[in-house]
Every structure is written in structure tokens, then in C-alpha cells.
Amino acid sequence: MVDQRKPTSATPRSRLRLVIQAVLSLLLVVAIFWYLLHGIDRGQVWVEITAMTPLELVTLLVIAAWNLATYALVPVTPGLGFWRTMMMLQAATAVANTVPTAGPAIGVGLTYRMLGSWGYSRSRSTTAMLVSVVWNSFVKLGLPVLALALVALQGNASGARVTTALVGVAALVAAIAVFTLLLRSQRLAERFGLLAGRVASRLLGLVGRPPVAGWELATAKFRNRTRELLQDGLVPITAATLVSHLSLYAVMLISLRHVGVSDAEVSWAQVLVVFAFARLATVLPFTPGGIGVVELVLIGWLTAAGGDPEQVTAAVLVYRALTWALPILIGICCYVWWHQSRLRPSPVAAGDRRMPIPKVEGTADTHRPHTQPRDSQPRSEQALGLGHAMKRERITSPKGNR
User: Fold this and answer.
1) Alpha helix locations (H) across 155-292?
2) C-alpha pair distances (Å), 210 with each of 196, 198, 343, 352, 380
3) Residues 6 or more apart from 324 whose CB is under 8 A from it?
4) Where are the domains of the chain?
5) 103-117 per-position pLDDT tens digit
6) N or C: lower Cβ tally within 10 Å for the chain?
7) Closest alpha carbon to 262 in 226, 293, 307
């Protein structure tokens, strides 16, 4: 007899592990914020935030809205449309920014559901998500290199920065080379899928999960669909992804300038360096949406670069309110809208469209119950009388007597 208790015993264990990870994540967030705000004049931070003029607040809201819009401009889901793409991305982002540990996985599942409701197959959805992840990873690896090069051009190069830039260049080149080889060779893509499946099976075996299968076929299918997607979309996807990241950087830079951190204190190139490494720190989701981790990198490094602690803290809090908290509210609204739209009855298909029949006087009104037709057809007595009348008319008419 097959033992059926093993799957049920693994489920509470995995749930307990998720709960423990969530608690540890929340404790990490609390510890980071206690460390950051310890010794900071929180009253002065609030004064710096409220000192912004209405024009400065409007410009921040405008650039934040543009930043959110750029996420939907990356054309990895052809034919989906801007508003549906925005709805999907914001709903998934809201989940990833709020749910500890399992937030990204739940966001992926929600993306599958939303794309499936709009007619996208799982393979097309997987291709869209993986291409988006790969291109975002390329930009995250490339931005620190670009930022360090700009700082070096300003005369602030150091041995540590040069070493970091070289490591970043090596990592970026290696990632691009592996991805290019996968797209060029069908056999290499299948081998990579087999290797990835073996590694995933071993990792799943450590937590009592069954091994995976068919990854080589999935990798080959992903290769074919990615080649089709990139055939005409390589340049638009690359440009839109880069613009999206730079728009996020613009929110950070404008927040710093509006609270009083000048370019003489922290230059725009130094801000780009700190921003780029803060983005790298979110590769591993220790906390939901990088909450706490991003603040630690931004406040610590910008203060070390010469910024006033209270002003830098105020700017980072404003930046995170516009790029972390605001997408949560918008994402909740997007999810509710999508969920309600699924509950609405779908319109009649074009091939099954029934044109309304015009109502003729004397016919039955079929929209009213228990309605009988009135004189819709001549009765037998009326038909007999009508026949006699026509006969008399033919006899008495002048034309009939000729």
C-alpha cells in the first residue's frame, strides 16, 4: 500500500518554514529601521519633508507617475495593451511588496492567472516573465559599471571602485554570453535545461519535494519563443527597460534635490552609484520589496558620500513612499478591478449576435409572459367572409363584366 501520509506531513512543515521565514524577515526590517533611525532627529526629518513647496510635490508626483508607466512600456507581452499590462504589473508588485518570503512566488502565480484570463498560454506567459527578468538583471548588473565609470571620469576613481567595476563587467559579460549561447544553440539549451533540472531536483529533495522533469523541453521551447519575441523586439525591450530603471533613479535624484541635498554635497553620479548598488541588493528577496535593505544602502552610502543625515533620510523616505508604498495602493485597486471584470458577464460573441426583430402591430409581445397574439393570423370565419367579399367584388366590378 502506498503511504499517503508523506505529502500531508510535508505541508505543515513547509508552512511552518514559511512562517519562520516571514517572522525573521519582519524582525530584520524592524532591526534595520531601528538602526537607521537611532540617533536621527526624526522631528527634523519631518520638517524637511513638509518644507517642500507645492511645485516640488507636483513634480515628484509627475515623475513618480511616469516611473510607474514605464514598467508597462516594456514590450514583452505583444498585443496585451498598455492598461492591461499596467494592471497586471501593479497587482503583482503589490503582492511582492507586502507578502514576506513567498511574495514573489505569489506574484508570479497571479501574473499567470491574469495573463491566462486574457488568452495568454502558460508558455507565452513564461517567456514574457523570463525575458523581463533577464533584461532587468542585465540592467542591474550594468548600471553599477556605468555609474562607476562616470564617477571615474569626474576624477573620483579609487582602487576599490575600479575593482568593483571590473567584477561587474565580468559578471555582465558572462551573463550575456550564456544567454546568447542558449539562443544560438538548440542542443545547448536542452543541456542547460537538463542541468538546471538536476540542480532543482536536488534542492527540492532537501525539503522533501519530488524531482522535476521535462526542463530540457521547456528550455528549448523558451528558446524558440524568445527568439521570436526578440526578432523584432530586441531594441524596444532593451531601450524600455533602461528607461524604466533610469526613471526610478530620477525619482531618487529629484527627492534628494527637493529636500535640500545639493550636487555639491552628493553629485548625480554618486547618487547613481548608490542607487545602482541598492538595486543589486534587492536581487535576493530578504524582505518584501526590499523594504529596509534598500533604505539601509541608500541612507548609509549617501550619508557617507557627504549628505546631511536628516535630509538624506527624508529624501529616502519620500522616494520609498513613491516607489514602494504607492504601487501597493495602485496594485490593490488594479487587482480589484481585474477581479470584478472577471465576474461581469462577457458580451455576446460576434458570430452569435442576434439582431433585434422589429415588433409589428398585431404580433405577440414575446417579452411579456402569458401574452397571446391578437389577430396575428386570420381566423377561419374571417377568412371565409373575406373570400365571399372578394368574389362579390369581382362580379360587380366593371372590369370583371367585360
Assistant:
1) 159-184, 186-206, 215-259, 268-280
2) 15, 12, 36, 47, 80
3) 97, 289, 290, 291, 294
4) 18-344
5) 888 899 999 999 999
6) N
7) 307
